[in-house]
Structures are given as C-alpha cells and as structure tokens.
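Inputs:
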Amino acid sequence: MRTDSGVAPGTEPDTKPGAAAGRPRLKASTRRRLTRGILYAVFILAVLLVVFLADWSAIRINFLNLDVAKEMFPDILITATKNTIIYTVIAFIGGLILGLILALMKLSPVGPYRWVATAYIELFRGLPALLVIFGFAFAAPIAFNWRPPGGSAGAGLIALIIVSAAYIAETLRAGIQAVPAGQVEAARSLGMGPAWTMVSVVLPQAFRIVTPPLTNELVILIKDTSLLFIAGMTLTDRELTTFARDSVSQQANSTPLVVAALMYLIITLPLTRLVAWLERHNKRGR
Amino acid sequence: MSTEFPADQPLPAARAKGPAGVPAIEVRNLCKSFGDNEVLKGIDFHVDQGEVVCVIGPSGSGKSTLLRCVNRLEEPTSGTVLVEGVDITDPETDLDAIRTRIGMVFQQFNLFPHLSVLRNLTLAQQRAKKRGKAEAVEIARKNLAKVGLAHREDAYPGQLSGGQQQRVAIARALSMNPDMMLFDEPTSALDPELVGDVLEVMRQLADEGMTMMVVTHEMGFAREVSDRLVFMDGGVVVEQGDPREVLGNPQHERTQAFLSKVL
C-alpha cells in the first residue's frame, strides 16, 4: 500500500460504481484508482452524515459555550490540571518503586516471594481500578479504623499506586528477562555478586528495553487519575475530571467536559508521540 | 585418565600466583547432565600453573560445558572442581572471590552494551575488587593498550567490530588481574579476517606465562601455542598430549576421524 500524493483526483468517483460490468477489462492501475475513489466516497458520505445529523446549535450552546469555558479559568489550570499532573507523577513514581520490588520478587529464587508477587499482580490486574480506589477511600478506613494521609485523595492515590505497580511489575519483569543471559554470566564471571549484577548490568538494560511500554503506562495513569473522583475530593484536591464534573453541575452546561478533554489531550498527545519516537529509536539503536 | 605430562618448559617463577605445586585447575570425575542428557561423563582434567591447554572436539562433545564448570557458570552434577586447590563445588566457598581470579572470555563477547569501553573494564574492578576509581582506570587503560585499543576507551561496544569487542572482553577479564584465563571459543563468532588480531593477543598472553584453558576450533593456534592439547568427544577426554603429537599422529580412531574433517 503506497500512500503517495496522487490521491487527490480520486475524490469524484460517484459515477463509477455503475461501470462494474466492464471490470474485467479494467487495467490494474484503473481498478486501484477506482477502489480508492470508492473508499474516499464512503468517508466523505460518513462525514456529511455526521455534519447534517448533528444539532449544531445545541452542540454550540451545550458543549462549545465560550462564556462557560472562560468561567473555568484560571482554576482549571492552577488547581485541576496541576493536581492531575501531581497525582500522575506520585502514582507513577510510587508504582515504579513498588513495581520494581514486585518484579524482583517475582524473579526471586525464594518461593514465597514469587507466590506473593504473583498473587498481588494477578489480584490487582484482575480488579477494576475504580473498585480498588473505592475500597481504599471508604472500606479500608472503616475496616481498619485507618485515617489515610491526605484524606480521601490520599487514599485514592495509594490505590492508584497499588494498581499501577501490578502492571509496571509485569512490564519490568519482561524487560529484565529480555536482557540476554550472557550479560549476567559475564558480570558473575567477573566476580560481581547477584545484587551488583542486577543493579549495574541488568536493570539499566532492562529499563532501556521497557521505556516505550513504561511511557504507555504513564499515559494510562494520567487518564486513570480521573477515577479518583469516586473518592470524593475537597475543592483544592480536585483533578481535571472532578473539576469538570463540578463545573458541569454548577453551570448546567457540558462545555467543561470538552475543555477538560482538551487538557488531557494536551498532556497525553506529546507523550504518545514520544512513545512512537522511542520505539523507532530503540529499533534503530539495536 | 589424567595422564601426568612432563612440563617441557619450567614454570616462570613470577607467574606462580597460587600455592606452589598445586594445579591451577583440577577436575576429578566430573559429571554434568542437562535433564536426561549426560554431557560430561566422569572427566578427569587438570591445568598446571603457567600451562596453556587447548581443548578441541566436535560440537556437543562437552568441551564448553567443562570450561563453564570450572568457574561454576554451570553447576556440576557430581564430581570435584578444584581451582588453586580450593573446591569450588563446596557451598562454603566464596564463589565471587574465586571468580575474580579466573578471567573468562565468551564466544559472544558479552560486553555490557550500555557502558563505554573504559567503564566495561572498570565496573567489576570497583564492584568486586573494591578498587578506587583512579586505580581501576589506570589498570583498565594499561590493559586496553595491551590489546591495542587504547584509542577506543570512550567508544561503546556497538561501535566496535567483533574482533575489537573480543579484545576489549579480554582486556576486561585481564583488568581483574586473574591468575588464569578461560576462553570459550573466543574466535568462533568472528569474521575470518578479524580472527588473527584476537589470536595474536592470546598468543602474547601465553608468552607472558598466563595459565590458559582454551576451547577452540583454531587448530593452528592449538598447535603453535598450547603446551598440551586435549581432545574430547561424547563427554569424555579421548586423548591428550603434546599438540604436535595429537594433531600429527592421533592414536585414537575418534581423534583421527575428527581431525580428518577439520584439518
């Protein structure tokens, strides 16, 4: 499939389908142009359908209301977006540390460490993050008479760390196992112990291998901070989604959802582009 | 089966690092199985201090496994491996300390790709021998110069040719000041035109009196450099002796069959 520049002329194919009878005699290049023309026609038709079926005045008033959007500033930046980023960073760093411990446990020669790590990873990958956050924010404080640090936002964050650690542990384990066995043999044959071998030789290479999937994990975590709304946040603790939901009910207008969506995209799009770049770069580097 | 051979050359006194009179490597009745596959079937083998021993044999004969049992990269199934008189199969033995005295060179080089050449040479010196950075760098530079790569200390392994990588790997092992060196088919992964440089470095080491055990397919090197040649097949030592004798006048029919294919 070439994605060349000669596609623009194919946008007037409307009369062509009737020529089906002559198909066997068509040249290959003509047929290719015809097929592409049909694909374009379907696409344009779909766009037109959406444009004509949508109630634009309702959309403009309910979703693209500039006055409502203006109301959200500057709080959406100095509180909501800021909190989303802070929560993501905390959950990611916490998840990375806990995930590394779990990954090492899962590769441990000591059986019980492996079992605990496996049980943990299977449990928290199998549960919806929303449920875990709910549990930490409401069930755990009652069950253990526990006052979470940082209130319900703190409880929710701990839940996010715990869930993300399960995914990160699996990513790191795969990365560690992808480092060739010869690397460990070389380090050990030089008299380096298992701990130094892991720290100086295996982990640096493993992290390089898993940088793209880890960045993906980060993007997922950014979006998962939106689940914190279930924990019930104080005004200053609110992240983007909670903030947008509150604005929606205050203003009786859905524009805040669109603004929040744009904010998420401003954060996530550069990161997903970075992942794509890293993947290409990694491939070339090896 | 371990035949005692008169040492044709006296040991250079400066090289005798281990306890005097004790073989550098002594293997007794060594067996190694991978599952049902019996790779070593009761090997008796030794390398004296200052001696260069080449091990040849068809693939699957167990020669690499024997070499890897010497620093316990492979766990022997049964038998004894003594390095300078210390039993390395004894759980009480400090394996890491023993390994700093045994340099190992791999077929696939196994340089650390994320570290510069110089750092490849200093890492284990600092981590395992607890040398200071300045001392480690000085020793590393000396050994890089020895293998003719002093100018590449800032390069990364991926930027070097296979032959250069293997010379760096030899310099890395030498930087631990080992008493002996193990070579596991050091030239088998190299393009033919790069083999010579690596063999030259190994020959130089042998001339300096380094104790060496070399698993190889390079018959020319084995003939000219080794003090003793060991032929293995089917997990046993079939024949050993003076390399010119074994290569020129093999006694055993399995040796004859193998040599007729490779020479």
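Residues 1-20 of chain A have pLDDT under 50 and may be disordered. Flag for discussion at group meeting.
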